[in-house]
Design brief:
This protein is of the alpha/beta class. The protein is built from 14 helices and 14 strands.
Length: 409
């Protein structure tokens, strides 16, 4: 499966072969999206489709292969189905003909282990309705909603959609502000955006666009300039900005140029606060001072992109860290949501990008193995600020601390 890099909420459809998962997708979308067949095992790989659900907005629905697939290829398909759980915000388990056994119990165990909200649909109700006994067992044992449904003639489609609305966590579709809680009506926010070899031709990168939109949504004024124009602009600007957000790569230049009475942070740190595990980042970042020779660090990029000769994650951060620590360090870089090949315990630290291209749950699931193993985690922007001795200032807008410069070298 091509790993998802979509910030919309994700809903996974699970169940045995030929239980009507693909028909359910088609019923929800109102389109023939998924191939439907009487032959068990028609869906071999996860299939994604974006739809709109009233009260939630756009979501990505993922149709998965049957959990009772067989043979060597079947086991691989089941493996892909299990991988889907790491990137979704809620699950729908589809049963039929009152079959509820080990495959379903295993799925529910995995849902609960991953703290994944779910509901159960008894499909093909035109052929056989769910028995009161099974419905009672499901509700009492698993404390989960169950609804009868006929995907080919979905008379109660609205009931199902209402149940989805009630089940999916609100955090999946309501986003915390980036900087809106730091500004008031008419306040100016200065954004420092270098135009260098990594800047995409003719456009701005997503975090920059997201912050601009967030400022406008909260009735502020967004002003954008390159790092070379900051000094000139500040001399002319009145009133002065209430906040400056910079690209992390020019943190030292921004720190030198922006007066100390003006709060300064970075796009990556703003994202870390919005969707990352900010408390764990705060706890983990100081461990950059404790690295030793031979330590291996894991750098997580949440998107795939053209790698330049001065790439931030693959080139600049390792170079800065080597100079900062004076140690011989080793690095692994994993992009997108690809599997991490080494055991997580092989790593002394994990450094996660801002995560602008993935959902909050996907980012948290990405970090969970490291956090559970007690491995320190940090974020691109927070690591860069720490390395350059401006960490306290960079996080001060979100912690309420004074934010004085601290030299860690």
């Amino acid at each position: 499966m091509a790993k998802s890099r979509d910030t919309k909420p994700h809903i996974g459809i699970f169940g045995r072969r030929n239980n009507g998962k693909s028909s359910l997708i088609n019923a929800l979308t109102g389109q023939e999206i998924a191939i439907v067949s009487e032959v068990a095992g028609t869906t071999t790989d996860p299939v994604k489709k974006s739809i709109e659900i009233g009260g939630i907005g756009p979501v990505v629905v993922i149709d998965t292969a049957g959990i009772d697939d067989t043979g060597e290829l079947g086991l691989k398909r089941i493996g892909k189905t299990n991988e889907v759980m790491k990137i979704i915000d809620m699950a729908i388990l589809v049963i039929a003909h009152n079959e509820f056994g080990d495959p379903e119990k295993k799925l529910i165990h995995d849902f609960k282990a991953g703290d994944l909200p779910f509901l159960i649909i008894h499909n093909k109700s035109d052929e056989e309705t769910i028995t009161p006994a099974l419905s009672s067992v499901i509700r009492e044992k698993y404390d989960v909603p169950v609804i009868g449904f006929n995907a080919l003639n979905p008379d109660n489609k609205e009931d199902l959609i209402n149940l989805i609305r009630e089940t999916i966590p609100e955090t999946a579709f309501t986003k915390q502000t980036l900087v809106g809680d730091l500004i008031s009506y008419g306040d100016v926010v200065l954004l420092i955006t270098p135009i260098d070899i990594e800047a995409p031709e003719g456009r701005m990168i997503l975090p920059q666009v997201q912050v601009i939109r967030d400022v406008l949504d909260h009735d502020g004024i967004a002003v954008v300039c390159k790092e070379r124009e900051v000094d000139s602009f500040l001399r002319k600007m009145n009133p002065k900005p209430v906040l400056v957000v910079t690209d992390s790569q020019v943190f030292p230049k921004a720190d030198a140029a922006i007066p100390k009475d003006i709060p300064l942070t970075s796009f990556s740190i703003v994202l870390a606060r919005q969707k990352g595990d900010f408390a764990s980042y705060m706890k983990g970042t100081p461990h950059l001072s404790e690295l030793r020779d031979g330590d291996r660090l894991l750098i997580l990029e949440s998107c795939t992109h053209h790698v330049s000769c001065d790439d931030i994650g693959r080139v600049k951060i390792p170079r800065w860290l080597n100079n900062f620590s004076g140690k011989k360090l080793e690095y692994d870089v994993v992009s997108g949501l690809s599997s991490i090949q080494r055991p997580i315990t092989d790593y002394a630290m994990v450094i996660q990008c801002g995560g602008c291209m993935i959902t909050r749950r996907q980012l948290h699931n990405r970090l969970k193995p490291a956090i559970d193993a007690g491995i320190p985690v940090t974020n691109y922007g927070m690591a860069i600020a720490y390395i350059h001795g401006i960490y306290n200032r960079a996080i001060a807008p979100f912690t309420g601390n004074k934010g004085d410069r601290v030299d860690y070298l």
